[in-house]
Predict the structure.
Amino acid sequence: MTDEEQTPTTPSDPTPEATGLSRRGLMGLAIGAGAAGLAVGAGGGFAGGAAYGQDQARRAMDATAAASGIHQVGITTPVQDHLHFASYDMMARTTRDDLAELLSDWTYAATRMMQGLDVSATGAVGGSPQAPPDDTGEAVGLPASNLTITFGFGPTLFDARFGLEGQRPAGLERLPAFLGDDLDPLRSDGDLCIQACADDPQVAVHAIRNLSRIAFGRATIRWSQLGFGRTSKTTAAQATPRNLFGFKDGTANVLADDTAALDDNVWVSASEGPAWLVGGSYLVARRIAMLIETWDRTRLAEQDRVIGRDKGQGAPLSGGDEFTKPDFQATDAAGQPRIDPRSHVRLAHPDTNGGIQILRRGYNFVDGTTDLGRLNAGLFFLSFQKAPDRYVTLQRSLSTDAMNEYVRHVGSGLWAVPPAPAAGESVGAGLLGA
């Protein structure tokens, strides 16, 4: 497959008169800012004629993820219901120019898909019948479903292959080994990552499928993970979801409207650099297998003790409702702590970790059954924080967590998530232009 067949190119784009936007004008808008405005003007002249283009425009306006300003979408965006996460490695003998071209092509395609459009102007059905279509087509007729696509750069990207050694942030290292880790190297790490979240699983899968196809000849997919059923929230309007253990998860998560907490805990500031990462964050992904059958045979009181909350209402065992701050000094009639010192709530709480908070966007997963006939299921944990050492501190605090009897960490990765690209630029432009 030639590059022209594989990726969208400028000559195949609709004319500026038809869209009101050039290819470079389109790039960067939906990755961070301006998504809603872009959807309105992107209709006529698309593949398949005016009727098809108008339908695409209506789909784009139907459900487009809100803009996130200088930050990439998919971080503070209200958490969608479905995830397709993928990690990639650049291929041998690729150059810095190859990397820049890939990121440019990815940005362009992602910008279009987040508007409910095909990856290029010719898309799934508008090209030559004698050539493979630019778009795989399984999302034709579907709305954008609040699709967000978020890009990250792993520690291994910053080596001699691309001349980026001097641009690697000091904290961007492979995560250290944690007590109880049983990591599969084939489900860990990677040069690049893409997080695609949507309210329709087919839309999320379509995004990763097409971005992987665009990467052909430059990057290969290292591993991926499907997720369903969010396990956290990022806005006060969202109800607290439940994980596969049946407990409410993410009650105390950092929320999108708490700008002070985001600045303190999520966004990289100018003093924390490097310059290309200011306004960005760091993404940790952990694949956590849950021992479902063991948990399901555990008595309710023990489940509550392990978590530190009431399973029904989500209230801390010290009393109150779901949103009552846990009282770790509260004791029962026998003088014993109401919240066990080894409970998950206590060990993960900011009061136990010097005030550290993270922004979580996790998902449940079920990947069939294991060789033993048990559910291959668990939590695909995603967190954003302004420095990797904050996650390391939290995870080390959880080394004595009573929940460790019921979970195994089997996959892991860390990526730097740059800010949203400026209009006309591709994601990572600040890094590759440095």
User: Anything to note?
Assistant: Confidence is low (pLDDT under 50) at residues 1-22, 33-68. The first helix runs from residue 3 to 6. The two ends are 32 Å apart (CA to CA).
